[in-house]
Predict the 3D structure of the following.
Amino acid sequence: MIDDSLKEQATLYAAGALPAAEAREFESAMAQSVELQLLVTDLHATLDGMAAALPRRTPPPALKARIMREIDSRAGVVVGLPTGSGFGFWQFLPWAAAAALAFLCVWFAAQQRASNIALLRAQQELAAIESQSQAADRQHEAQRNESKAERDQLHQRILTQIADQQRQSATERTRLVERIKELEKRIAQANPSPRPATPPNNQTPSPDLPTTVPGGDVPPGGLFGGANASTTLGVLRSTNPGSPAIGAVAWNPATQSGTILIDGLNVPAQDRDYQLWVFVDGSPVSAGLLRVDTTGHVQGSYTIAQSINTVQRFAITDERKGGVPQPAGEIIMLSN
Amino acid sequence: MTVLLRTDNESASTPDDAELMRRVADRDRAAFGLLYDRLAGVLYTASLRILNDSAEAEDVIQDVFVQIWDKAASYDQRLGKPFNWALTMTRNRSIDRLRALKRRYEFIAEATDTAHATPVFASDAGHEVYQREKTTHVRRALTELPLEQRQALEMAFLGGMTQNEIADRLGQPLGTIKARIRRGMLKLKESLGGWL
């Protein structure tokens, strides 16, 4: 979960509105948070979409021709020596003069060779050292650039993969919500009258546990029909990726009651019970034991002994028969 | 909402931007021309909006397309779509030029008044019909943004201005500008959803 302050920084960063120092600070924070990286990626795409939707202006047709000429020239045009009748003696004159000058220089150098040989050797050695040093610098620079490019590419690849996964998760979430709705509809059709809450055989909760057990009356309008703005709703998903279990759970602080619906659960072992927990201020509070029918289905309402206004999350654990005052067993389902 | 599907014939005969980039990397002049036809309008519009000077915008577009020709071989699809890559280049070069010219970005309030204007499209119909649908949707989302939020967003993104510069220019407290950008962007992102 990204807090509001970071979310604001993300929008300012993506829009390019953060001053340099703050942008660097934000980049450090972003490096630690995949969620933040995803948000920034989405914000960049949003801004690109905004730019693309500006009322369109057409570039002049001549611009394309100009650009095509430019790339044609960059592709490389072979330029040969000029030919024709005008290429005569006077045009050779500068070349002849240059050749003569070169000849004089060689002759002069030959005269001075003996006295300057030591100096030339020193200069050659110096030039060789400089050349080696420059080559090493170039190699170092190339390696650094290559390394940076690889790092950037890796970073972008990770971002792309994360974005793909996020899209898949969103699709999966939508599918699950649809499935819950479908389940609820099917249950409402199959159970026109509410089922009485009957505690399961041999499942008497211990004295320090809440006495309510899911399986109570279905509220009017369906299990979640009475939900309002203050109701906490959670989609329960199995912690085992291979499990088909899926469900929904709600807590209404106005009525101090909740509803739960799960499908696809494994029936607990003979000496075990599934126990529902609500998390309040980070601490688990027992909401009772689940009654799972032979098809792996759980449905009903529940209450909690203490008054609870805000629920952060819901969880279901696999506990010893009769339940426990604090969760000790494996978490089998967890809400969003 | 209209659902637009592309037929197999269309997708086979209409190479996407990434395919065009691959061909440009192989020095395919025709592919480069097609890519120009597809992107130049959007890029020129963005540059013109930033610079408010058609000659300068043309120079930027020429630079950008020459860069595309030169760098096509090193383009990596995983780094983003060709459009996003080219738009980033265009935006950066335009803002640099704006600063070099010592001019200021001028927000144009009529930005989305033409929500139903018909954009200029190239000939490949399947691709462009989808783009038109998307553009209409984005414009509708933009018209729903309060003017001051759109202004702050554009001044940052297209004008290359920091939050402090925007606050100074508009004579508003810094916190107000931050809030406008935050609200505007998050609302726009939410409105656009799956279109982006």
About this structure: Confidence is low (pLDDT under 50) at residues 1-12, 111-124 of chain B. Chain B touches chain A through 66 residues (CB under 8 Å). The two ends of chain B are 16 Å apart (CA to CA). Chain B has nine helices and no strands.
